[in-house]
Amino acid sequence: MEVISNIFEALNNQLLKMNWLSELVRKLVEDVFGLSIKERLGGSIHFFIYDTIKIFILLSVLILIISYIQSYFPPERTKKILGNIKGIKGNILGALLGTITPFCSCSSIPLFIGFTSAGLPIGITFSFLISSPLVDLASFLLLMSFFGAKIATAYVIVGLILAVIGGTIIDKLKLEKYVEGYVKEIENVDAEIIELTREERISYAKDQVSQIVKKVWLYVFIGVGIGAAIHNWIPQSIIENSIGINNPFSVLIATLVGIPMYADIFGTLPIAEALFNKGVGIGTVLSFMMAVTALSLPSIIMLSKVVKPKLLGIFVAIVAVGIMIIGYLFNAFGYLLI
């Protein structure tokens, strides 16, 4: 068993954490630039180059794999699958199907509109909407590369639980009347599901890589830049006093700070890594990430065009409270996962 564990750890270090890349960048910074990575400037340059290259490698590979899988679940097929299951099982399936959809909440909203116009229960569509930006194979593997398998697994589980509970609450509150009328009136045409060849699926996956990289590259650079600044230039005492583990309001602050931002898992991870390395609680870090990805201001604005203020407010409140509960639980028991 120990041998298997050692093999897994070695693979994780080289394939996900990319220790080999960190060493190459260290040599570049120290031997070529003549800077020590133990000093602020050298450490910042090392952090920026290493994290940027690592994220783009993982980004490209993971999107390619996930998009290939996603090609088997076009919106028409997803609607048919969800339309046949009701109740809590439907919420669970909606949350699970959300894990194989695009990476940001904004791109999930058009699918949400399609599901609503197709007559799917509102609770199922919201379970899908919550889960889609929060939980996917990419977030799992990226979190594993930064924080380890235990935290990554726990994150996926609580993200799915939040999606299921959030959708169930909205369903029980009978809030269908707060969906804008024009959404329900959109003519629902069941397009024929076209079976793609393997070559067409590969081509689709490559196109998705190109499109998503074009959308997120700026946020990755910004996120890594902020992470480098936090990691090397902001004194640890300032971070500990503002959102450190001893501040009882740290999770609340991280959630409220994360909501107005717009990024995805790729842009928030470098910031989360830097905060974690500065002693911020893992629950506070995850609350920040979840707030940015699930409740970004642009996605809320888009959603406000398809649901009425009461439903929008209930959705934001449920997700925000759920994120904060998750954050405090991780802060209390996260030591078991590290």
Automatic annotation (TrEMBL):
Signal peptide as annotated in the record: none
Highest taxon of the lineage: Bacteria
UniProtKB keywords: Cell membrane, Membrane, Transmembrane, Transmembrane helix
Topology term for the membrane: Multi-pass membrane protein
Residue ranges crossing the lipid bilayer per the database entry: 47-69, 90-113, 119-144, 151-170, 216-234, 246-263, 283-304, 311-337
Gene Ontology CC: one annotated term: plasma membrane
Compartment annotation: Cell membrane
Cross-referenced Pfam families: ArsP_1 (PF03773)
Family designation: Belongs to the UPF0718 family.
Protein name: Permease
Species of the source: Clostridium cavendishii DSM 21758
